[in-house]
Fold this sequence. Notes:
Number of helices of chain A: 7
Distance between the termini of chain B: 59 Å
Distance between the termini of chain A: 56 Å
Strand content of chain A: under 5%
Oligomer: heterodimer
Shape of chain A: globular
Number of helices of chain B: 3
Helix content of chain A: 55-70%
Amino acid sequence: MEFVVFAIFAALAVLAAAGVVVARNPVYCAVALLVSLLSVAALFLVLWAEFIAVVQIMVYAGGVMVLFLFVIMLVDLEQRGFDLGAGRIGPRPSAFERGLWAVAALAFGALVLSLMVRSLDLPLPGADRAATMLQGPYAADGRGLGNTEWIGMLLYTDWLVPFELASVLLLVAIIGAVVLARRDQADAPAGKGAA
Amino acid sequence: MTLAIEHVLVTSAAMLTVGMIGLLVRRNAIIMFMAVELVLNAANLNLIGFSRFLPDPIGQVFVVFVIVIAAAEVAVGLAIVLALYRNRDTVMVDEASTMKW
């Protein structure tokens, strides 16, 4: 049962990811990305990560996707034609060149997969510690993993400094995004962005 | 058939490969950012998978950090795309290959 649910959503996630790459209309790409990310959230649920699944839905469906769609609508893609087409400065890459890139990416994927499978034979350092954790007070539901309590415990004790640094990073990113996307006051009325 | 770590790894590697293909063959900067999201999600899937099968909840803590960094990257990246569009009238990366005009 667990495997069946995982297989369905894994296939959906990968197929939707392929849709992101092949769709010509950027809005279709965004919708395919949303389907892929929601499928990954479902996979997280199967893998005992309930809190992360909810965070995934809130951050990606609620935040990142809105950002993508805003930018797609602000940027007028129609005037140049969509991707892979008109208005290029350099020579258009040949089918051979594109095929070469695809083969390079597939080889990269195979390399990563072989490294990951190879790493399964290595001794896993966290296993002993995890076994003791599973017998702790947070093992109330019989498996001790995936609940918000556990993540909160770890985040606010062992990982407090990285957690605070992450919030500083978000603040810096917000300020940076505003500064970059802001139009200069001086040339705002004559700016070509309005055209 | 029971769920094993290998299934998670294969799914993750497939998503990562698709994301890498997207990064390499597309030239629309917005869609390249979407491909980066796919790559980061493949990494997250890997972390969650190992967290499930070790089992060790620390993998889920790392996923929180990855999501934070992905959100920051997308915010700054899309702001750069907007600035690029305002200055060059394009979001195609091969038409913006010079740093200075």
